[in-house]
Amino acid sequence: MGRLKKACAIIYLLAFAVVLASFASSLAGPFSRDAAELLDLPAFQAFLAACMAICALQALYVLGRVVFDKPEPRCIHPQGATDLEVTTSALEAVARTAARDEDVLVDRVLVRIRGRAHDTLYVTIEAIALDDTALDVRAAAMRSRVEQAMRDMLGTSCASVRVRFLPARTTVVTKEDEL
């Protein structure tokens, strides 16, 4: 989650807490007189109106995401052919097989289908290199192999491939037995 989204979420939660606390305390409880006096102040009324506006904007945002957010496509239509569908799991398997290399472990393959006609493919390969020599050459070779495999499978060059090398996280634990 980005910094802006975190800041907006925190602001929304604080505004929601203010609105809920003032509503609940004005209805019942030991602080109902204090809440009524607080609600009579014009400054607090403006602050409460701002908090309610923030809550309303958040509700509209969530409603917009629910109504207008489309699910990610699960298959690609190569060359715009609607009668031919290739699923993302098949594309991931082909990309993983093509990305194999001797001194590289393929950690994760992410396939995203984009385009209005679901005909553009973005492939991200996250790999761990067992030795750190010539990573640029390895990445270029992996990228070209995956692009060629996608071109052979789909019959068109609609794939954009990105290769990321993750840091190797190896930990050696030594346990000594006491005699």
Number of domains: 2
First-last Cα distance: 51 Å
Q: Helicity level, as a percent range?
A: 40-55%
In CATH, the homologous superfamily of the largest domain goes by the name: Cation efflux protein, cytoplasmic domain
Give the low-pLDDT segments. none
Task: Give the C-level CATH assignment of the largest domain.
Answer: Alpha Beta
Oligomerization category of the chains in this entry:
single chain
Number of beta strands: 5
Number of helices: 5
How would you describe this structure in keywords?
two-stranded antiparallel ribbon; single chain; 52% helix; 179 residues; 5 helices; alpha+beta; 3-stranded mixed beta sheet; Alpha-Beta Plaits; 5 strands
Quick overview:
The chain has helices at 3-27, 32-40, 42-68, 88-99, 135-154, and strands at 75-76, 86-87, 104-114, 120-129, 159-166. By secondary structure, it is of the alpha+beta class. It has 2 domains: 3-68; 75-166, Cation efflux protein, cytoplasmic domain (Alpha-Beta Plaits).
Task: Tell me what you see in this structure.
The protein is elongated and about 75 Å long. The mean pLDDT is 84. Strands 3-4-5 form a 3-stranded mixed sheet, with helices on one face. A two-stranded antiparallel ribbon has the order 1-2. It has 179 residues and is an alpha+beta fold. The two termini are 51 Å apart. Helix 1 (3-27) crosses helix 2, helix 1 crosses helix 3 (42-68) and helix 4 (88-99) packs across helix 5 (135-154). The chain is built from 5 helices and 5 strands, in the order H-H-H-E-E-H-E-E-H-E. Helix content is 52%, strand content 18%. The chain folds into 2 domains: 3-68; 75-166, Cation efflux protein, cytoplasmic domain (Alpha-Beta Plaits, 2-Layer Sandwich), CATH 3.30.70. A hairpin with a 5-residue loop joins strand 3 and strand 4.
